[in-house]
Design brief:
Blueprint lengths: L2 E6 L7 E4 L13 E6 L2 E11 L14 E2 L8 H13 L4 H7 L3 H4 L6 E8 L2 H11 L4 H12 L3 E2 H7 L4 H9 L3 E8 L19 H16 L6 E6 L5 H14 L3 E5 L6 H12 L3 E4 L5 H12 L5 E4 L11 E7 L16 H12 L2 E6 L4 H8 L4 E5 L10 E6 H6 L7 H13 L2 E5 L8 E4 L16 E3 L4 E3 L6 E3 L12 E4 L3 H11 L5 E4 L9 H10 L5 E4 L12 E6 L13 H13 L10 E6 L5 H7 L3 H15 L6 E9 L2 H15 L8 E13 L2 E10 L3 H13 L7 E6 L7
Helix pairs in contact: 1-2, 1-12, 4-5, 8-9, 18-19, 19-20
């Protein structure tokens, strides 16, 4: 009798052996969903291996009790990817495998709807029936006539024309007068969306060279196509290269995944890809309804779609002949998941490409230092686009020193920025205003006693929202009414300081009367259609000024945008993180790249109190290579990634002393495995020391070989008894040390 090794839906990081009964022998294989007796109850589980033996005595093994035969199986390659994720990202194997399936598919609670179509089974018999029964059975005869005149008419269409026709249809089928055919009816997220097929444009010389290089490598190394880093300035036509590569992949009979970092980018990206590939494109992201996510996944699983586009989770689309994975804006931190498994979709894409023998393309105008370093050391192949399509000029960039502007009376908007916005409005052109902070004001302070509105559960100030007259904590989500007088001393001299996108939006409406202004941030983009509505209105010119956070900085292409204003450009420089200058350079370069993408030249105005900062200076010149050389020198001096790997261990709890003691204990357990080349810091308070009433500490390791350390950490997390009042998790290659 065969043995099934399964993982139950508990975070135990363990597999269990079960006997496969003879009645299930033919249908139990790796990836199958089964039900097994577990303790005093039963549990759903996934089979990860089928073996001939077990380390446990066979007479002690229980049998699998049921098999969910209709449930889609997880492919062997995806199971292998899940195992790698569990080891690399220090999480339970069950959590990694759980990530491979979207919840609507994994739970099995949602089914694909069936559509029934009807045909005349015997025309002579149907005619005889009508002749004999036209007066007695008018509705049945009418239905027969409808089916005869419209072969393949659906049950939905018949239900719209006749009242409750199901029973009558069943009689016609039972009497061999009509024939019923059933097929899957997928919920369509593109319903009502008109897509115009467009022919491919002429490639520039640089684009042609890149495409030829990729195609040549694909043809010469089909079993090991490897990873390409496509470094192209904003507006250089990276998407057209993706489209050409996908055409070749589809022509080879294979499939592809395209990742974008934000849901906001999905409609625009999907539109471009559907205009080239039509219904072969599927979309997978969290803004879809559960039914749509289920059906889009099933379309891919059943071979009805060959290209999957979406955010992070689209990486696990169930393709069996995967030929390419494209990661657009590969530098984006949003590719990193903040809950377990804390994977980076960019790096997992490279691993899935390796497992599937698929081409991987990482694209960006501002590559992550990790990816560019891999290209410089030969791990990735580098392709470059140095000029915009049609030789359009890069936008002219001006730095405004707000130390000087403030003395001249300028506050949020300098006079040059206000004048530039006014000129664009007069010329019928559009403006984007970027500020990487939501809300109206970031501090509420009493001038009399110095009281500041701070979240009682987190070590941060509340953010004030004028429109709804509330204070909110952007860490724990707490919302309270904004007081009209000081809760401490009763004085009414309460003032607001700092600035957010809500305040910028209101200022634009006040300064530019009659202009149409919209805002895009986490507060306004709450509904599933909000992104598309705002971007569509902006694209058609109904919105003249678009204010937003970093969600407007990525990949959006609006030809009529000729001005980008960047307010408080140095905000990200103040974040206590070794990547702060890299993120500042990326944000400024990306948002500046939204200007001048059409026929008219673009201008970018950067307002900053740190005009001489290297990240800002290099961004002004669009000079990524010089920034890389500058920044990699600093990283080398302090042994930071990409020169080393980083592993963070986070501890959270209500007892601060207990957290520190637990951190010290963990370090003692790890000490025998830590080499002399590895640098260790902590346990120290996190950059945000308290969230939701819990103290937060962090241990950071920097080095090159962490495999044994990760195995030990997993045993500490899952195998050994420890203080359950302290939450502990490990984060491999963290991108945000504060979370």
């Amino acid at each position: 009798m065969k043995i099934a090794r399964v993982m139950v839906n508990l975070s135990l990081d363990r597999v269990f052996d079960y006997l496969i009964p003879d009645k299930f022998a033919a249908i139990v294989s790796p990836g199958a969903k089964v039900e097994v007796p577990f303790g005093r109850s039963s549990r759903k589980a996934f089979v990860v291996a089928v073996r001939d033996d077990s380390s446990y005595p066979l007479h002690k093994l229980k049998e699998i009790s049921d098999v969910f035969e209709e449930h889609p199986k997880i492919s062997s390659n995806l199971l292998r990817l899940g195992e790698w994720m569990a080891d690399y990202y220090c999480c339970a194997r069950e959590l990694a495998v759980k990530t491979l399936l979207p919840s609507p598919v994994r739970t099995g609670k949602i089914k694909t709807r069936k559509k029934k179509r009807y045909y005349i089974a015997d025309m002579k018999a149907a005619e005889d029936f009508i002749f004999k029964n036209e007066r007695k059975k008018k509705i049945q005869c009418a239905i027969i006539k409808r089916i005869a005149s419209e072969p393949g008419v659906s049950d939905e269409s018949l239900a719209n024309s006749f009242k409750n026709p199901r029973a009558l249809l069943s009689r016609l089928v039972a009497g061999a007068l009509a024939r019923e055919e059933s097929s899957d009816s997928y919920r369509d997220p593109f319903e009502g969306v008109q897509t115009i097929r467009k022919p491919p444009p002429e490639l520039t010389d640089e684009q042609r060279k890149v495409v030829e290089d990729i195609f040549s490598h694909l043809d010469s190394s089909p079993e090991n196509p490897g990873t390409f880093l496509l470094h192209g300035v904003t507006g250089s036509g990276k998407t057209e290269i993706y489209l050409r590569v996908l055409r070749k992949i589809l022509d080879q009979g294979r499939e592809a995944i395209v990742l974008v970092p934000e849901i906001a980018l999905t409609p625009q990206t999907t539109e471009r890809f559907r205009s080239r590939f039509g219904d072969e494109v599927s979309v997978l992201h969290s803004a879809l309804s559960d039914g749509e996510r289920h059906d889009e996944w099933m379309r891919i699983h059943k071979g009805k779609a060959r290209i999957a586009i979406g955010a992070r989770s689209a990486l696990f689309a169930p393709f069996r002949k995967l030929g390419a994975i494209i990661v657009d804006e590969e530098h984006e931190p949003s590719y990193k998941q903040e809950e377990s498994p804390r994977y980076n979709a960019r790096d997992v894409a490279v691993m899935r490409g390796h497992i599937e023998k698929a081409l991987v393309i990482l694209g960006s105008a501002t590559p992550s230092l990790e990816s560019y370093h891999n290209a410089m050391t030969g791990k990735y192949r580098l392709c470059e686009l140095t000029r915009r399509v049609d030789d359009r000029l890069m936008p002219q960039v001006r730095i405004l020193d707000m130390r000087i502007e403030s003395k001249a009376g300028g506050r949020l908007f300098s006079k040059p920025l206000m004048d530039a916005i006014g000129q664009r409005l007069s010329a019928g052109e559009q403006t984007m205003i970027f500020l990487n902070r939501k809300g109206f004001a970031t501090n509420m302070t009493c001038l009399a006693c110095g009281w500041t509105a701070e979240c009682g559960q987190c070590s941060v100030s509340y953010t004030y929202h004028k429109e709804r007259q509330s204070l909110s904590c952007h860490l724990c989500g707490d919302i309270i009414p904004a007081p009209s007088f000081c809760p401490s001393c009763g004085d009414r001299q309460i003032r607001f300081s700092g600035v957010g996108t809500e305040k910028i939006e209101m200022l634009c409406k006040a300064l530019f009367k009659g202009a149409s202004v919209a805002r895009m941030d986490a507060e306004t983009m709450t509904g599933r259609d909000n992104y598309e509505k705002v971007l569509s209105s902006f694209r058609t010119g109904k919105i003249q000024i678009l204010v937003g956070t970093q969600m407007i900085a990525k990949g959006l292409d609006f030809p009529n945008v000729t001005l980008v204003g960047i307010v408080c450009a140095d905000l990200s420089l103040r974040i206590p993180d070794f990547r702060s200058e890299e993120r500042t350079f990326q944000l400024l370069t990306q948002v500046a790249g939204r200007a001048g993408r059409g026929e008219r030249p673009g201008e970018v105005i950067i307002q900053t109190y740190s005009p001489s900062n290297p990240a800002i200076q290099f961004a002004v010149k669009h000079d990524f290579k010089s920034f890389y050389e500058y920044e990699i020198g600093l990283r080398k001096s302090f042994l930071y990634p990409p020169l080393t790997h980083m592993l963070a261990i986070h501890l959270r709890g209500e007892n601060e002393d207990a957290i520190v003691a637990e951190g010290d204990r963990i370090l003692q357990e790890l000490k025998p495995l830590i080499s002399s080349e590895t640098r260790v810091s902590g346990p120290t308070p996190s950059p945000t020391p308290k969230i939701k009433g819990k103290f937060r500490y962090i241990i950071i390791l920097r080095g090159s070989k962490f495999a044994e350390i990760k195995r030990k950490i997993k045993s500490l997390l899952y195998a050994q008894k420890r203080d359950k009042n302290i939450e502990i998790h490990a984060d491999a290659d963290p991108v945000n040390l504060g979370r």
